[in-house]
Amino acid sequence: TGVISSLQRQLEIQESQLRRIKSEKEMLQKQLTERENQLQAMSTKFCSLREEWKHEEMMMTIEKENCSLQQVVTEQESKLAEQNKLISELQGTVSQLQAEVLTRRYHIHKQHQAQEAIQSQAETLQHRELQTRVALECITSRFERYRSKIIQATFSAAGSKPPQAEVTDEEVLEAMQKIINERMEFHQMLKQKGVK
């Protein structure tokens, strides 16, 4: 945005300079036209005087004025050509700056779109993370309840001693395996005695 503001200020300066030079060009064109009119008037006057009086000094004065006016016209035309060249250069610079401003705006627009897309993805990920956390807490709570019931069922069996401290998963598995083995041995003993 700072670069665009800088370019726009530079563009305004160039356009202002272009308007000033165009104004100077119009003024020079006007002066040139006036000088040409004066030259034409002097030429007419010269012809008239030469025909009427044939006065040599007057003719020399008019010729000097004519030469002077021609020199002024030549200088004005040279200045006008320089002004036209400068105007062309400034118009090229203005067009280039306008294109650069448009390019910068396009890039900024693309960056805004990318930023909005990333922001949307971040919000979606945050929402999914929250959902996952809630689901994980629910699963953890169910697992703890299920584990508590398994421990309670395992250590409440006949012959089992209730745990004095927190029980590890390995200890629970060993106690369950012991109950299962004892049950299988009891079942085998009943089977051997013929009890269904």
Automatic annotation (TrEMBL):
Domain of life: Eukaryota
Residues forming coiled coils: 4-45, 73-100
Keyword Coiled coil tagged: yes
Keyword Coiled coil belongs to the record: yes
InterPro entries, per the entry: CC-FHA_domain
UniProt keyword annotations, A-Z: Coiled coil
Database matches in PANTHER family: COILED-COIL DOMAIN-CONTAINING PROTEIN 27, FORKHEAD-ASSOCIATED DOMAIN-CONTAINING PROTEIN 1-RELATED
Protein name per UniProt: CCD27 protein
Organism: Calonectris borealis (Cory's shearwater)
